[in-house]
Amino acid sequence: MRATLQNEILCINREDLPHYKKGGSLVRNSYFWALKSISCYAARGCDWEYDREVWIALARMLLSFQQSGYLGDGETMLEFEVDVPIPEELRSVSTYFSSSSSSQ
Fold this sequence. Notes:
The protein is α+β, with helices and mostly antiparallel strands. It has helices at residues 26-37, 55-68, 73-76, 99-102; strands at 3-6, 9-12, 48-51, 78-80, 94-96. The protein has 4 helices and 5 strands.
């Protein structure tokens, strides 16, 4: 999931967020609600935002869903541009994306 940092707020790109589907996968719908529940801003069609205070909980949540084996790394890892320092709280669930994947 492509992520950016703006004034101590983590923003996850709206195109990479999980979608809620009525009657859909229990794991994916639970993942949607879990991510939404700790966000400070999660409007439909917008990037979701996370205050620094929840970054540790976010990292634990992402690791838990990643380790479950039901979701892929692309759905549970935060991807930052190479020139953005990754905060310590998010390093276990973060990586850098290459310039070729950022143009997609």
